[in-house]
Amino acid sequence: MTVGEALAAGTRRVGRREAALLLQHAARRSALELVTRLDAAVPPRSVGRFLRGLDRRAAGEPLQYVLGEWEFWSLPLRVDRRALVPRPETELLVEEALRLAPGLPKRPVLVDMGTGSGCLAVVLARELPAARILAVDLSAPALDLARANARRHGTGRRITFLRGDLFAALPAGVAADLILSNPPYVPSGELAAARELAAEPALALDGGPDGLALLRRLAREAVDRLVPGGYLLLEVGDGQAERVCRLLAQGGWEEVGTVGDLAGTPRVVRGRRPGSGAGWPG
Ligand SMILES: C[S@@+](CC[C@H](N)C(=O)[O-])C[C@H]1O[C@@H](n2cnc3c(N)ncnc32)[C@H](O)[C@@H]1O
């Protein structure tokens, strides 16, 4: 089978863009190497890998799982069924954490609650080399994946991975300067109907009947695990920001506000534990 024949066969099943990505991955070749050599034969082992990948993708598995790797904040991360595929909107949490970082202590303590693939913990460990990071998840397989990603990017020693139910996982006495979380927030009923989410772990997505079960707990429980003046950053679903802002305001959080994505949709809610500390930077 030539490169051109493989691309044509793949395009019929999953479209040109995905066929090209799957072939690059299977043949371990760049896009340029493939398009400039359409007549070259694809080695039989690569053809086998390509066809198996096509089958998985055509059966509805996310492209990212089939490729086994995906970029977050321009960092290639291993991704598979053990954890959620990192989404572009989650980069807003990184942006906001970095915006706040100059106002944090020199060696800040950060908590990534529900670390999944470890995308937030690993990126923040690289961006903030003085930070100590605690990354929590209830899922042992997700933590294994997160540890592998941390090792791959040389941050394994700077992140402490902990298994448990939200803050119960943290050692007694730990008080963070910043807690960030992309919790499960899809309403259970929507999740059951969403075929495109079926391959990802329900534990990473299911936010209970109204999607806010974990967000409510975070709004209630995080305050005791922050230093006075410490920050909470929460990713929320489209349409949830107003309700989560209200939860934080009712819970006594200060400086409650939102951060919008490129389309202006609020996707991050922030709050600050009452206490000492300067105002918002910027
Ligand atoms: C939406 S995923 C986010 C993963 C990753 N941080 C990201 O942004 O791609 C939520 C994560 O929270 C974890 N999780 C769900 N319930 C939890 C709980 N009660 N305590 C700790 N982690 C939990 C899930 O296993 C999952 O990895």
Structure description:
The protein has 282 residues and is α/β, with parallel strands linked by helices. The protein folds into two domains: 3-59; 84-272, Vaccinia Virus protein VP39 (Rossmann fold, 3-Layer(aba) Sandwich), CATH 3.40.50.150. Helices cover 39% and strands 19% of the residues. It has twelve helices and nine strands. It has helices spanning 3-14, 16-27, 31-35, 44-58, 63-67, 91-100, 119-127, 140-152, 188-193, 202-205, 213-221, 241-250; strands at residues 69-72, 75-78, 109-113, 132-137, 159-163, 176-181, 226-235, 254-260, 266-272. The strands form two sheets. A seven-stranded mixed β-sheet has the order 5-4-3-6-7-9-8, with helices on both faces. Helix 1 packs across helix 2 and helix 2 crosses helix 4. The N and C termini lie far apart (57 Å). S-adenosylmethionine binds next to helix 7, strand 4 and helix 10.
What percent of residues are in strands?
Answer: 15-25%
Largest sheet data? 7 strands, mixed
Query: What is the count of β-strands?
Result: 9
Q: What count of domains describes the coordinates?
A: 2
